[in-house]
Amino acid sequence: MASVSSSTLIIFIASILVAASVAGTMTSGVQRLSGALSDRSVDVSTNIETDVEIISDPGSPGSVYNETDSELTLLVKNTGSKSLPAAPGTFDIIVDGEYATNLTVTVVDGSSWSPGNVVRVDASGVSLSNGDHRVVVIVNDDREVLELRT
To answer: What pTM did the predictor assign?
Structure first.
């Protein structure tokens, strides 16, 4: 009779140890998942609050592209609900499939790029031939396209 209770006790202790290790593994997995979801929700929130519009006039290509200086000038309005940094690193500008790297950014109205304010983005070293061109501006995954003819 004593052998039955001791073997039952050993099996009971073993099952408690297995249950504790499974619970520990599950807890750490749930914590990692929770942290990942929290990080992702911050990213999604930033993307939702970001909205910009290119307000440059494509019908007036002389105001957008200066052939003499090889400079592209874009006016971009913050139409989102969040202030954005007025810095070259904020923008990804692609001109006819080529990434523009030499950017300067100036706030046109106000001291910061708050909702409703406009920035002027100058991309120097951009060479456009005569014809149709496509400029893509990306800010926090918000993508705007300007098509113009020079």
So the answer is: 0.70
